[in-house]
Amino acid sequence: MSNYPDLINIPFNNVFIRELFVTGEPHYTPNRLDPGYWVIIQDNSLILQPGETTPALPYGELPDWFSAPAAPLTIGLWHGLPLRIFSIKSNGMIQPPFISEALNAAVQTIDDATLGIGGLARQILHWEQQSRFCSLCGGKTGPFSREWGRTCTKCNTKQFPRISPCAIVLVRRDNEVLLVRNAAWPAGRYSLAAGFLGLGESLEDCAAREVKEETGIDITNITYVGSQSWPFPSQLMAGFVADYAGGDLVVDHHELEDARWFPISALPALPPRRSIARRIIDTFCT
Ligand SMILES: [Zn+2]
Question: pTM of this prediction?
Fold first, then answer.
């Protein structure tokens, strides 16, 4: 751990589940009677049951109303017991004592390990759903590796989980930082400029381009500070800090509702603490 930047110690990175979770062989099937834990995903939410201090993963037999699929995916061991995952429909009703908790909720009420395994299950289910057929010949695929690779049963083409890299960057100018606001975010919330990597781009190029496109600002001293797995549905956020190099603020209203320089002493509402955006702001705006 000490070899990594401190900024990777963020939920959704495997650091919080490394001691608790052992990856299984692909589609490994425990004895159906073996009790174990469940990760139940509904869109971007986790279905949980009351725990001692915080809501916990359901354990043991599930009530009938869950209508779990005949063969939920077993992804490994959690606390030494089989961990089975499945998703339920968006409109599926949840009955007490079970609760639904958004993985990306504005206020975090579940612990970091539960968030971590929930995020991993969310990504695996997304990939399993996306990779059932070969993108070359349309043939059916089957599992072949512990990394969730799939092989085409017709042409043998192999594919691995698709993770989309994004750059996210804090831009500093004297005692101010450049923050942006997307209309879809909760009222008043601002965050860092960010965007998806383009073909042929380095992550540094991507950071500079996104800031320029969204705000008209040129940046320099682009420095990598850490990264975060982001399971909505499957991104890798590469975090940077940079300095203002020039240009006037011109907000791209196709992408953003607003962008502003904020004094470090008067920051607006920010993203939740589990996000790399917030970790970068907390670390570098002191
Ligand atoms: Zn194929």
Answer: 0.91
Shared domain check, 184 and 106 = no
* Gap from CA of 143 to ligand 1 centroid (Å): 13
> Is the domain of 198 the same as that of 227?
yes
Domain membership of residue 1 (yes or no) is: no
Q: What is the mean pLDDT of residues 176-202?
A: 97
Same domain, 271 and 176: yes
Ligand 1 centroid–CA 162 distance in Å is 17
Q: Which amino acid is at 273?
A: R
Q: In angstroms, what is the span from residue 160 Cα to ligand 1's centroid?
A: 14
Contacts (Cβ under 8 Å, ≥6 apart) of 7: 225, 226, 227, 239, 276, 279, 280, 283
Tokens of 71: 């063969």
Q: Which of 110, 128, 146 is the last residue of a domain?
A: 128
Residue 257 region, left (φ>0) first, then alpha (ψ -120 to 50), else beta?
A: alpha
The CA 131 to ligand 1 mean position distance, Å, reads 11
Domain count, the chain: 3
pLDDT value of residue 26: 61
pLDDT at position 274 is: 92
Q: What is the DSSP string of 96-118?
A: TT-EEEETT-SS--S-HHHHHHH
Domain that holds residue 157: 131-162
In a domain, 209, yes or no: yes
Tell how far the Cα of 183 is from the centroid of ligand 1, in angstroms. Answer: 41
CA of 120 to the centre of ligand 1 (A): 27
Per-residue model confidence as pLDDT tens digits over 225-259: 999 999 999 999 999 999 999 999 999 999 999 99
**Which residues lie closer than 8 Å to 250 by C-beta, 6 or more apart?**
215, 216
pLDDT band for position 105 (50/70/90)?
Answer: confident
- Residues 175 and 219 both lie in one domain: yes
